[in-house]
# Entry
Amino acid sequence: MTTTPVRFSTTPRTGAVVLQGLAGIAGFLLLWELVTRTDLISSRFLPPASEVILRLVDYIRDLQFWRDTGETMASWAIGLAIAVVAATIAGFAIGSSRFLEHATRSTIEFLRPIPSVALIPLAVLLFGTKMQSSLLLIVYASFWQVLIQVIYGTLDVDPVAAETARSYRLTRLQRVRYVVWPTALPYLMTGIRLAAAVALILAITAELIIGTPGLGKQIALTQSGGDVTGMYALVLATGMIGVLINLIARFVEKRVLAWHASVRSEAAA
Amino acid sequence: MRALTILKNAAFILALPLLLILLWWLGTLGGTNFYVPTPLQLIVTFFQTWFGERMVEDVLPSIGRLFAGIALTIAIGIAVGVVIGLFRPLRRVLEPLLEFFRAVPPPVLVPLLMLIIGVNDQMKVTVIVSGAVWPVLLNTVEGVRGTDQIMRDTARSYRMTRTQQLLHLVLPAASPQILTGVRQSLPIALILMVISEMFGSSTGLGLSILQFQRNFAIPEMWSGILVLGLIGFGLSIAFRIVERRILRWYHGLREVQREG
# Structure
């Protein structure tokens, strides 16, 4: 990554940046409130921001909301964990051998672009509205994200480092631990970050369409019940969960890769 | 010698898929498994089901909406992204908002837009655009922002007009990032095409495969999954060809840098 030259005179402190961002959010909410209060957009389609936020506060004090959130997050976490573990193992296995990498490439390239929502009918057929349905979609979608990154990572090993390790007679296991793993780790973290976002999308999708319990199902219910305000409040909630997942993923990535050059140089700049 | 390499490559490409199909064929040889059709059954069903009326009534309209959505996504994403990327204050004010919009799981927009627009083609295309536009938009912002300052100053001192700067400096400089965004948004667009049809639709691929499942038409359901897979596969191949053409200079540059 190239570092852009920093011109100190025009770079405000982080405080100012945060303030500007908050101003943006406030402006957006104000605009939303205005167009609905002046009936520019009918409240049948878009209820005022204040009502939606009040409803969201109601939800936050409601145990059912937290139960739904728990269901969504549980299938997100379990699905993501299965996908990450399976893809890491498969990725290292495939990446460690030229032959396997060549032999599996066409199959991976074909299976990966299959949209996981195509598996919705299969999930319904096999598991009905149980959590396994969500898991099937989540695991399928996130598995490829991680697998591809891990394979790239294992192929990126510096040839000199690999040969050095071999001439020092490191065993296969040691080579994986001390040469391949550190090289592949940044790729793995990128894969996990992407997969975390995708897993949430699929968790909500499964709930919305199949009706497995969770926030997505709740959104479908408010929609069919004509509770527009509730629907917007839940959509806001899912957006906030999405932001939270992104922030946590980025934080973890930075922590785990604190030793890595890309993160170190960023911190120094 | 060359023929041998080609043969070897072909073997690498075909071996595993053929092996998997063979295993699948052996596994379904008894023909008693309710959930999994035999390979032959699937192929026959695939042609019977999709090459006829359904092609015109379901598949082509779906693909049409998908392409319309993708075209709008790219146009809007780049246009808005360039504007936001070029004006620093605007970027600062909008950044958290955009992060939020990107983080909203796109499928929740389907019930929202159904309410606002109703169930029709416009709704489905809008769903695709409103979910897929964020990766393009945010990557364009990043790409435009990352344009080399010295090049920018050079362009200005050569008195290039704003349009010239945009066409010959900003857009090419941002194009690797923009294409990364497009690559991320294509699978989202496809997912949203399917979902928008599963939600109260009268035609389309998404609805058809759901109906097959409800009627326990298992081979037809699998053939529908295959159709979606082929569309996804075709999309990723098409993208790679386009990317290679647009970014030929960039890949060349990278190679030179790596050797240097």
In short: The two ends of chain B are 32 Å apart (CA to CA). Residues 162-198 of chain B form the longest helix (37 residues).
